[in-house]
Amino acid sequence: MEFAIISTLNGVTYGLLLFMVSAGLTLIFGMMGVLNFAHASFYMLGAYIAYAVSSVFGFWVGIAVAPVVVGLIGMAVERFLLPRVHAHGHAHELLLTFGLALIIEELIKLFFGDFPVNYQMPGGMRFSAFSIFGADYPFYRIFIGGMAVVMFTALWVLLTRTRTGIVVRAAERLPAMAEALGHNIPMVFMFVFGTGAALAGLAGAVAGAFYPTNPNMGIELGVIVFVVVVVGGLGSLKGSLVASLLIGLFSSFAVGLDWSLASLLGVIGLGDWARSFGGLMTLKLSSISATIPFALMLIVLLVRPAGLMGERN
Amino acid sequence: MRRIAIIAAMSAAALNTTALHAEPLKVGIIESLSGAQTSTGRLYANAVKYGVERINEAGGFNGEPVSVTEYDNAGGAPDAADKFRKAVGDGVDIIFQGASSAIAGQLTEDVRKHNIRNPGKEVIFINLGGDAMELTGQKCQFYHFRYTATAPMRVNAMVSAMKEAGELGTKVYSINQNYSWGQDMQAAVAAAAEAGGYKVVDEVLHDVNKIQDFAPFVARIKSAAPDTVFTGNWSNDLLLLMKAVGDAGLDVTFATAFLDQPGNIANAGKTALGHYIANNYDNAATDGKFAETYKKATGHYPIFVEGHSAFALGALQQALGKVNFGGGDINVTKIALALENTTYETPLGPISVRKEDHQTIRPVVVSKVVKNPKYPADETDMGFETVKIIAGDKAIYPVQDSCRMERPKE
C-alpha cells in the first residue's frame, strides 16, 4: 500500500511536469502543423533566463520574465525563420528547428558555461508539504504539479470557451475562410507559436529550480516530450495530459518492481530454468524504467496510430 | 608583389629548416568537446594542454616543442573512431582521452588494430578517465595506459576510510548506472561487504542520464533503510539522486565517485554536506604547491579531473626524459617501455604503472563535504576536506585473469 501511494504521488507530479513542457508542443503542432524540434530548447532557455533574471531581481520576477522573453523569441522564429522553409514541407521545418536546437544549446554553453548553474528556489519554498510514511514530500513538487493544472485549465478554457479560441481554431481548420472573414491569420499563427514557446519557457523557469539547470536539460527532456505528444495524439491537449500522467505513473511504478522475464516464468514453475540463461531473462524492469515510455509509444503506434486522443487524418 | 614574393621565399626557407630539424612528438586529445559531456571533456583537454606546456617549457622533446591537437569526438564512439583515423593521418604519436569508458573502449581497440597493422608507426593511448574494468581486463593491451583509479580502488578506499570514521554503518545501498562502469561499481560494493562489515540491503541499476525524476528510486531506498548509499553515478544522475534524497529528508550518507564535478556542490546545496567521495586527487589533500602552480598557468585551481590528468602528463614528461632519439625518428614503443618503468612522484604519493595490465598503482583520496573548507567548491562556502589518503599499494587490486597482454618484441 505504501509503495502504491508513494509511487502514484511521484508518478502524478512527474507526469504533470511532462505535461507542462509538452503542452506548448502540442499546441503548436495541433494548431499549425509545425513539428518544433527546438521546443525543449525553449524549455532550457526559460530556465536560464529565469536564472539570469532571478539572480538580480529575485525568483518571482525571473518566473514572470522568462516566459515573456522566450515567447518573444518563439514569435521571432515563427516570423522570420519558419516562413522561408514552409513551402518545402514538414521535413524542412523539422530540420530547421533541429538546427535551432543545436545552436541554442551551444549559445547557452557560450554564455553560461558547460557546467550546471546554481539556479535555486527561494529558501521560503524549500519545505516539506507533508510527511508520508516517514519521508518528507517536498512542497515544490506540489507547486510544479499545481502550475501544470492551472496551465491546462487556462489553455482549455481559452481554446474552447473564448472568442480568441474560436478564431484560433478556425484559423487552424479553414485558414482561407477565416482570413476572408477579416482575421489576420499570420498574426494568429505567430501568437500561437509564441504562446507555445512561452509555455515551455515557463515550465523551464519553474522546473529548472528543482531539477538542475544545465546545458543538457533540453536534450534530456526533448525526446520524452515528443513521446508524450505522439502517445497522446498529435495536437490533442487532453491526450497530452493523459499521456504525461501515464508515462509518469509507468516510470514511477517500474522502478519499485523488480520484475524480470525469469520471475514471470517462475509463476509457471520455469523460474530457475530461465535464470540459468541470464541476460535478457534476468533483466530487471527497474533497470530499464526509462525505456518504458518508448515501449508505450510503440504499442500505441501499433494499436492506435493517431495516438490516444488524436483525430485520424 | 615583391614583398609577398620575399615573404613566400622566407617562409619556404623556414619550412625547409624545420623539415631538416628533428621530428616533433605529436600529442592528440580525442575528447568530448561538444555535446552532453563537454563539461568533462573540456577539463581533460585543459589538463593535457597544461602538461604539454610544462614539457615544452622544459625544452620540449627530441629538440622540438611537443605539438598538441584537439579532436572533438562529440561524445560518441563512432565519432571517436573517425577522429582517431584523422589523428593518425596527422601523425599523432600519443592520444589522450578521459570522458566515457565507451569511447575509451573504442579507442583502445582502434589503437590495438592500428599498431598491429602499422609496425614502426605505433600509437600510445593514455586513458585518463575510462574506468571500466574491461579496459585492463579483456581489452588490455600493451599500448593502453590507464592513469585513473577504478571502481574497486575507489570503493575499497571509501569503505576503509568511512569505517574508520565510524560513518559507514552496517546497511549499504548500491545504486548505479546500467553500463560497464555502474556494473563495476555494483560488483565492487558487493565484494567489499565482508571487509567493511556491512550488508548490501538492496542494489539497483538504472538507465544512464535518461531519468529526470529520481523520487521513485528514493522511495525504494527509503524502504530498504540503509545507513550509506554507494553510487558511481555522475553528472545529472548523481545530482538528481542526491537532491531527491535530500528533499525527502532521508538521513543517509552518500559514498560517491564524482561528487566533485563542477556545479554539483552549488546545486545540491546543504544536502551535499557530510557526503563522501573517493577520487584521484583533491587540492585539500596536498600542500597546495601544485594547485598554485596550476593556477598560475591556467587562472584557476585544478578542479575535478584536471589534477590527476596533469599527473599523467607529468609521468609522460619523466618517461620522455629517459629516451633519446637524438633528433631522429621517434620510436613510440620505446616511449611506452619508458612509461612502464616510470614512477612519478605526485603531491599525494607515487604513481607507477603495473606492467601486467598497465593499470596505474596510485593513491586514492577520500574526502568529505564540509563547510568553510580550504578550497571552496563552485563559489559556495562548502567544499572537500580530506579524510584519508590511501597509498597506491594499499588501494590496488589483483590483476584480472582476463588480461592477456602481448608485449612488443624487444
Describe it for me?
The complex is a heterodimer of chains A (313) and B (410). In chain A, helix 2 (39-57) runs antiparallel to helix 3, helix 2 runs parallel beside helix 4 (90-112) and helix 2 (39-57) packs across helix 8. In chain A, 71% of the residues lie in helices and 3% in strands. Chain A has a two-stranded antiparallel sheet. Chain A is mainly α. By secondary structure, chain B is an alpha/beta fold. Chain B folds into two domains: 2-149 and 287-361, Response regulator (Rossmann fold, 3-Layer(aba) Sandwich), CATH 3.40.50.2300; 151-279 and 363-395, Rossmann fold. Chain B has helices spanning 2-20, 38-57, 77-89, 101-117, 151-164, 180-191, 193-196, 215-224, 236-247, 264-268, 289-298, 306-322, 332-340, 392-395, and strands at residues 26-31, 67-72, 94-97, 124-127, 144-146, 171-177, 199-206, 228-231, 253-256, 276-279, 343-346, 349-353, 360-361, 364-371, 382-390. In chain B, helix 9 links the parallel strand 8 (228-231) and strand 9.
What descriptors fit this protein?
heterodimer; A: 313 residues; mainly alpha; ABC transporter involved in vitamin B12 uptake, BtuC; two-stranded antiparallel sheet; 13 helices; 2 strands; B: 410 residues; alpha/beta; Rossmann fold; 2 domains; 14 helices; globular
